[in-house]
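Follow-up to my post from last week.
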Amino acid sequence: MWENVKLGPEAFDLSGKRALVVGAGSSVGRAIALALSEAGADVTVTSTTPRASEALAVKRLARQIAITGPRREPHSLDASLATAVQVMVRQVVKDMGSLDILVTAPDLFLGKAAEKTSDAEWGRIINANLSSVFYACRAAGREMIKQGWGRIINVASAMGERGLANSAAYCAAKAGVMNLTRALAQEWGPHGVTVNCIAPGWLEDSPGLGEPDPQANRLIRFIPMRRPGHADEVAPLALYLASEACGYVNGQTFFVDGGLLCHL
Amino acid sequence: MYREKLELKDRVAIVTGAGRGLGRQMALALAMAGADIVAAARSQDQIEGTAREVEGLGRRALAVRTDVRDSAAVDKLIESCLQEFGRLDIMLSNAGIGDAITQGKELWDVSDDEWHDALEVNLSGTFYCARAAARHMVQQRRGVIINVGSGTALRGYTANFAYAAAKAGVIALTKSLALLLVRHNVRVNCIIPGFVVQSPPADPQAVDFIRERGRYMPVQRLGEAWELGPLAIFLASDASSYVTGQGFIIDGGGLAGGYAPVGFAPEVRMA
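User reply:
Got it. Predicted complex:
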């Protein structure tokens, strides 16, 4: 290399790239999908759970993306079902012509004491937040390995790095995403496919912060920046990780957390 | 919107170790994003070269010969920057020395001087730069400090364990500085490079050497200095407004692995 490389802010330009955002109904997934589109990528978005509100949010987002970018049909699916994911990815590749960038950002939270969590609840959280990511990576990875180039960005959570009460299943799932990222990075790095992870800390719509909560003020004082982050503050990192210029970044988890993880 | 966030127009950056390699590339990248640059290093020729390149990009530049081991010189570096530009927004502490000084040596043969040298340049120099820059950034109520660690800090490194220890110090220092400065609207982060080639290989032998070494990386190649540029822009700009106290590893996937040699992929049936 050294020649013909984009060095300045141009490095973040994604013109000509085809991207799929699985879980664009989450605030971070939505912000990343919009940023990818703004950076010039052709973007398809999907939901990840059968929730009607999520499917509706994704449909609205697809319309918004189509104002400035190519119009792509949004996909409503339950991403915890492997076949549904495989079929969707195949359709997306057929429609867009190829797949260069995959973002996974499922986000299903359960705040409940571990001893009261049922088998079904555990299974649902693990499947929605972790299995779905594996299914999406596997399906997209098959395409990316074939073309010898790909960027996969999984959105986990700082909860995958630190434990939180009443969140055992979610913490375990998000930690799983981080180590899935490391494993896939080892396996697919030689094929030109990098796999990285973004782990946001507390965001404005995080559990306990979205609506008035007596504990919210205490939590905000705990964050070194004294404020929750906004999804728009997470998206630029995804652009960097999706770019040609970050080909030497692989297997890493990057925290966007207002300094949270520096706490003793 | 993202494009404006990456913009560094009207901002001033000091880059230490800016004469060559990673420092030079990061200085040029920041200039491409619109920043004016103070290039600091020990070698006057080299920083003047970088300064001329920055000017070639249409930005203002100043070369200030500095040895970061000397805290008075570092204070003077910040003064020169303020005198010339009237502000300081980005302190990129890249100066460091990582020569393989403990390679092939027994532990007890490493001298006090070798140990102290590594700590002085790599750790104390980073502290001096952060301290001097923070004084001004706190008044300005805005600033970004970017330190440069090393992947060697996160595992054992026999070729220069003093360097690895010093860089581990830089990563730890980054986290404390982030907490100390967060209320002043100053963010502190750390770039952690793995094996990165400093400049284009000069001859076919060097090309072969780099290719051979690259096989030990999950991405099957070594990094190149220019690849640090976009990461420096990201961390220096408002694109990373909610990021502080973090280390950003850019190492081809090496540190995410390390459980077995690259390429080792067991195929075992479930019992």
